[in-house]
Amino acid sequence: MTPRFAPGVRLQEDKARGRWIVMAPERMFIPDEIALEVLRLVDGARDEAAIIATLAEKFAAPVDVISVDVRVMLEDLRDKGALVHD
Amino acid sequence: MIDAPLALLAELTHRCPLRCPYCSNPTELTRASGELGTEEWARVFAEAAALGCLQIHLSGGEPTVRRDIVEIVAAARTAGLYTNLITAGVLLDAALMARLVEAGLDHVQLSVQDADEAGAERIGGMKGAQAKKRAAAALVKQAGLPLTLNAVVHRQNLHNLPRLIEIALEWGAGRLEVAHVQYYGWALANRAALLPNRALLDEATRIVQAARAAHRGRLVIDYVVPDYHAARPKACMGGWGRRFLAVSPAGNILPCHAAESITGMVFANVRDTSLAKAWLGSDAFNIFRGTAWMPKPCQGCENAERDWGGCRCQAFALTGDAANTDPACALSPHHAMLAEAVAEAGAAEFRYREFSSDRPRARPG
Predict the structure, then answer these.
(1) Residue A44: is its pLDDT beyond 60?
(2) Rounded distance, CA B318 to CA A25, Å?
(3) Do the Cβ atoms of B146 and A15 come within 8 Å?
(4) Which residues from B are below 8 Å from A7, CB to CB?
(5) At B346, is the pLDDT very low, low, confident or very high (cuts 50, 70, 90)?
(6) Dist. CA B320–CA B306, nearest whole Å
């Protein structure tokens, strides 16, 4: 499964407040640190496995530990309408 | 400590092919020759982003009457702003849509005046508008952009509310705003023709609630109620100078798009003042910021930081003093005016929006 941002949803830097925000039509929400790491890898090209592998390498953590976290996170972002899965 | 604003409303022009009798533009409209240029808007967008704005609403009048609308959208995206186009849709074609998408447009809000064609074209004052709006909605969806439909509702179209909800679904909108008319400017001049009675309002509220439940997961419905039937005023703009600022076609920096209706108020202009300076230091923003300015019964009221005293423009329009408590509040000494206006409503004819020199004049002799 390859996650991508839903139409009209994107990650945007909020420089004035020193954070990143997920902007959506007439609403916005603030991702926590883990969600932000995942969202930065969502480009419509990387599939779930590639995102997990990239994060496992970055944080020098076992793939099976990371994969549970990432899957829960992607599911949550899809429930919020921020992501869709191809 | 003054928080940074979250959103900028850029009123690019007052020109519009429609003539809606509840238009939120001031009754004295700015002509094309008085509008800010492309480069000026680009600078305003950069200043807004630096000040903390995350989102921009490109509005008007009709923003697509501007020949530089594509450059304006691109400038907003270059500044890093989430870019929302608020349009009547009647000037949108496939070529313009493609260029707007290329420029980075994020979202489109399309207005609809009524569900049936005859009603829509009478209220908007433009023949052929409804078919063009339907086509515009299709273009937005084909472009892969999210679509919000904005339906301003009042006594002359509320009977079609169920059909308006169906149209939102048919046209592919993910959001529908059902917004009762707010009464200042043109809408106040047409209040007797627009204001619904209590039974109509209650029926509309019931229909919206039922539709929300029926279309959950498919259509989000936002609902703005008319405060003439309320006991508590609306927290206008989320509080004066707290989250939001607007720039008029001529460059005036406003705490609210209707603030120019308050006579005697002086506004800084983007041609000689930065947005940051106006936001932080101008009288227009500071005069009604916070709670210290509030008269009784707002002063010391437990709702003071919930509704911020209501709407300043409405307080001015109805009582002549913008510093009064909004008459929409049941605690206002002027509250009875609203019930009187509801009782008097019943006119059928509109006074359409127009530029002042276009008004018919009495002929000599």
Answers:
(1) yes
(2) 34
(3) no
(4) 144-146
(5) confident
(6) 24
Element (H, E) at A54: helix A48-58
Phi and psi, residue A33, nearest 5°: -60, -40
Does residue B363 surpass a pLDDT of 50?
no
Q: What is the ipTM of this complex?
A: 0.84
Check CB contact of B51 with chain A, cutoff 8 Å. yes
**Comparing C-alpha atoms, which of B227, B278, B224, B222 is closest to residue B248?**
B278
Whole-prediction pTM value? 0.93
Longest dimension (CA), chain B: 64
State residue B364's pLDDT score: 44
3-state secondary structure of A48: helix
Which residues in chain B are contacts of A84 at CB distance < 8 A? none
Q: Which residues in chain A have their CB less than 8 angstroms from residue B148's CB? A: 25-26
Q: Please, which pLDDT band fits residue B358 given cuts at 50, 70 and 90?
A: low
- Helix, strand, coil tally for chain A in percent (to 5): 45, 25, 35
The answer to whether residues B270 and B35 touch, using CB atoms and an 8 Å cutoff, is no
How far is residue B306 CA from its own chain's centroid?
Answer: 21
Q: What value does the CA radius of gyration of chain B take, rounded to a whole number of Å? A: 20
